[in-house]
Write a structure and sequence with these properties.
There is one protein chain. The chain contains twelve helices and 16 strands. It has two domains: 186 residues, Quinone Oxidoreductase, Chain A, domain 1, CATH 3.90.180; 140 residues, Rossmann fold (3-Layer(aba) Sandwich), CATH 3.40.50.720. Strand 13, helix 10 and strand 14 form a beta-alpha-beta unit. The radius of gyration is 20 Å and the shape is globular. Helix content is 29%, strand content 27%. By secondary structure, it is an alpha/beta fold.
Length: 362
């Protein structure tokens, strides 16, 4: 085994360095995972541009697929794993004692291990991000064993992409059989929400995007959308009104992170419908809304942070049952050395590159 691990480290806003970290000594309750692939999402771009605050330096990468390389004796029992197992890393148990943990919301625990974001790489064991050769398996981390039969490009999507689609559209949005559903944003999370809504039994699913999203909008149909809408060519509200016979949508899920799209979401939902807001706009972005529309319409607005721990298991079972090739959304795979360029591309800053879903392969 190597004595060091590379890690794509955000050292300050707009600057990523490939740093070398020592492979840590593994305690009885710890482990080491050799990273197979890491997924890049819009949150990584916001981290990179300083729109979201982090305890820098941080090794980025929170969508993690890997293989257990080393495991302490207690860790094997804690996680139910053995060396050589292929795993995805998503979520953590938390401290178990704070107010969030006590009410069953460990994903909000401020003391939990957070890969690729809230845990700094400054101090040993350093390796808390998926854009690296190796990752430290902490005691409170949740590792889910995943079959070797699943392609790497699909396996890397299960925890932080497809599981979010289930959490946001179905569990928190409440999509059910016969619903009209609008998904704002045809990127990776929008495709995941589309897939989840279709399998929940939605009668019609509409996915919106802009001109440069043409390929993504076509892909949305493959994932279950009945109608794709380019909002630069059509009036979204008019389309929804016509397509639903004036009923409007039961559930609208915004994963675009666009204030303009969020505003339109309120106009596209029916009275007593639900607007799910899951796209981050940035720590300082203010989105103006006509609150009277929400009040008079008795509209429920639901914020969504990330998937619950058990959402991963539910999503994995569905993917294993349907064998749907979710890897079709993966358009680009970058080496670790090009992490910064990859993140810029995901943020739409490289004209010739606009990934639907990008992965980092160490």
């Amino acid at each position: 085994m190597a004595e060091t691990s590379r890690g794509a480290t955000l050292v300050q806003p707009n600057k990523i360095e490939i740093r070398e970290y020592p492979i840590p000594d593994i305690p009885l309750d710890g482990g080491l995972v050799a990273v197979e692939m890491g997924g890049v999402c819009g949150t990584d771009f916001k981290y990179y541009r300083g729109k979201l605050q982090l305890p820098l330096p941080v090794i980025l990468g929170h969508e993690i697929l890997g293989r257990v390389a080393k495991l302490g004796r207690e860790a094997a029992s804690i996680h139910g794993l053995k060396e050589g197992d292929r795993v995805i890393l998503k979520g953590a148990l938390g401290c178990g004692r704070c107010a969030d943990c006590r009410r069953g919301a460990a994903r909000f625990c401020k003391k939990r291990t957070s890969y690729g974001g809230r845990t700094s790489s400054a101090n040993p064991p350093h390796l808390f991000g998926g854009f690296a050769d190796y990752l430290y398996l902490a005691r409170d981390a949740l590792a889910t064993r995943i079959s070797d039969d699943l392609p790497a490009e699909a396996a890397a999507l299960v925890g932080s992409v497809m599981a979010n689609g289930f959490q946001w559209a179905v569990r928190q949005g409440g999509v059910k059989m016969g619903d009209y559903v609008l998904i704002q944003g045809p990127g990776q999370q929008g495709l995941a929400c589309t897939f989840a809504a279709r399998h929940a039994g939605a009668a019609r699913i509409f996915v919106s995007g802009i001109g440069r999203d043409a390929k993504r909008l076509e892909l949305a149909k493959r994932f279950g959308a009945h109608r794709a809408v380019n909002v630069e060519e059509e009036n979204l509200i008019d389309v929804i009104r016509e397509e639903t016979g004036g009923a409007m949508c039961d559930v609208v899920v915004d994963v675009s992170g666009s204030p303009k799209a969020i505003q339109a979401s309120v106009d596209c939902v029916r009275r007593q419908g639900t607007v799910v807001v899951a796209g981050l706009t940035g720590d300082t972005t203010v989105t103006p809304l006509l609150i009277d529309k929400i009040v008079w319409g008795d509209v429920r607005v639901q914020g969504c942070y990330t998937g619950d721990n058990d959402a991963v298991d539910a999503t994995l079972r569905l993917l294993e049952a349907t064998k749907f090739p979710v890897q079709e959304m993966v358009s680009h795979v970058f080496p670790l050395e090009e992490t910064e360029r990859c993140i810029q591309a995901v943020g739409g800053e490289i004209p010739e590159l606009y990934p639907t879903k990008a992965l980092i392969r160490p």
